Amino acid sequence: MTKVFRNILAVLLPVILAGIVISIVEATGHRFFPPPEGVDLTDPDALVIWAHSGFETPADIAPMLEQYPNLWSDLAFRSEHSFNGMVDADWQALFERFPRRFMLGTDTYTPERWYYVVEHADWSRTWLGTLPTSLAENIAFRNAEALLARVGK
Fold first, then answer.
1. What does residue 86 show for φ and ψ, rounded to 5 degrees?
2. How many other CB atoms are found less than 10 A from the CB of residue 107?
3. CA-CA distance, 69 to 25, in Å (whole number)?
4. Is the peptide bond before 99 cis (omega within 30 degrees of 0)?
């Protein structure tokens, strides 16, 4: 890990760092890998939120979550994991395999997107309601709480 990255870790909260990494990833057009220069995803202090789960498929997300235990996936700006209120079978299998690594998200990077927050919340409640309660709660809020608790240490 480079000295710059170590200095960032020493000064900023990991969740802020995750935002920086996500911004770099989105700005460069890479879905996720290779990681930006100097970012060591195996560092136990690095908590990285994978924006939009890289717009990848469950088959591509699973190996990344397997390889990088500090990688968390958000579901912002995604809709293909649910159709007609039901969770896609491949996505449900992925959620069940990694029940503590996904977080619900709402991408509100521009003011125009705020108009869709309520609609997105209602849609999310519908598909989350088809999952086992503990899994739905993990995705909806418990995983985010756990991530923030790690940041607070």
1. -110, 150
2. 15
3. 19
4. no
The tokens describing 9, both together, are 């870790």
pLDDT in tens, 33-66: 555 566 667 777 777 777 777 778 899 889 888 8
Phi, psi of 74, rounded to the nearest 5 degrees? -105, 160
Give the helix/strand (H/E) hosting 83: strand 82-83
Residue 94 is classified by DSSP as H
d(CA 49, CA 33): 13
Provide the token pair at 126. 């519908």
> Which residue is associated with the tokens 């220069």?
37
Q: How far is CA 39 from CA 14, 119, 131, 140, in A?
A: 12, 36, 35, 28
